[in-house]
Specification:
11 helices, about 15% strand, globular, about 45% helix, nine-stranded mixed beta sheet, alpha/beta
């Protein structure tokens, strides 16, 4: 593996075997964060792809946030300034030109609105797309979330993704995401059977979830929306990111325990999110 400056094998072993703090729904800060979203009902603006838009909006509605999605007219230059938080899923380029995404990122940064970058499929070989995604880092995202291949590529390592799928594990990416967090000043979150979140100094693990999250279109994209919802009401970015990940994992576990197929699981995921903390 390459992470820009390749780590020594000793450092790789240390990353894989070190003891990490785990954050779950049982941590009071997680439940408090979801309660704060329900109480605050923040306005959250997002640009995402048409495949994930419906689930992303419903995830936010399930926890009490108010979503708006899309690049109509001057939305990208107006809404980010008044939003509690913003998320930008770069697969929005499927149906939008690059300018609205850049406008939304720049507006959020200039207004001081926290925003989430989800660099979907970066590192999968589309060089023009990759260059644009990396240019969004100039607008200082508050949180970057993605799968292992995406985040390794975004950090400057070897591009290994196959489309939107990862070929690396979350554990493989720990060193890369810590380096990316230090370089960008963002909290970086890598998804996997156990998620790892870091601000470059502190790294925490969020276990749990359900394997069917990888079989529901837009599940990872909607997690980016949920992070934005938490950022709107939780001042500390690492804590907000943990709130979203732990709540999502818990809802997925509870949904998985009472369903059998992927369709019923997707509906139950929303049900369980809507019931969290009630």
């Amino acid at each position: 593996m390459q992470y820009g400056i390749p780590p020594t094998f000793a450092r790789i072993r240390a990353w894989r075997h070190r003891t990490m703090e785990e954050l779950t729904w049982n941590n009071p800060a997680i439940a408090d964060g979801i309660a704060a979203i329900r109480t605050g009902s923040p306005f959250v603006y997002g640009l995402t792809n048409y495949v994930a838009a419906n689930l992303s909006a419903n995830v936010l509605l399930a926890v009490g946030a108010g979503p708006a999605i899309g690049a109509a007219a001057d939305f990208p230059t107006v809404f980010p300034a008044g939003a509690g938080a913003v998320w930008i899923n770069t697969a929005a380029l499927i149906s939008n030109p690059a300018e609205p995404l850049a406008d939304a990122a720049r507006t959020a940064h200039e207004a001081g609105s926290p925003w989430v970058l989800d660099p979907v499929a970066v590192g999968a070989g589309a060089t023009e797309y990759d260059a644009f995604v990396k240019s969004l880092l100039d607008h200082r995202p508050t949180v970057i979330r993605g799968n292992a291949s995406e985040l390794i590529a975004l950090s400057g390592g070897a591009a290994t993704g196959k489309g939107v799928e990862t070929t690396a594990s979350a554990e493989d990416a720990i060193g890369a995401v810590e380096e990316l967090a230090r370089r960008t000043g963002a909290v970086v979150a890598v998804s996997g059977p156990t998620d790892y979140l870091t601000d470059g100094t502190r790294t925490v693990a969020v276990p749990g979830g359900d394997a069917r999250l990888t079989q529901v279109t837009g599940a990872g994209c909607s997690l980016g929306a949920l992070i934005a919802g938490a950022l709107a009401v939780v001042p500390d970015a690492l804590t907000a990111t943990a709130v979203a990940h732990a709540a999502f994992a818990t809802a997925a576990e509870r949904a998985g325990a009472r369903t059998t197929g992927t369709g019923s699981f997707a509906v139950a995921l929303l049900d369980e999110l809507s019931l969290l903390g009630r």
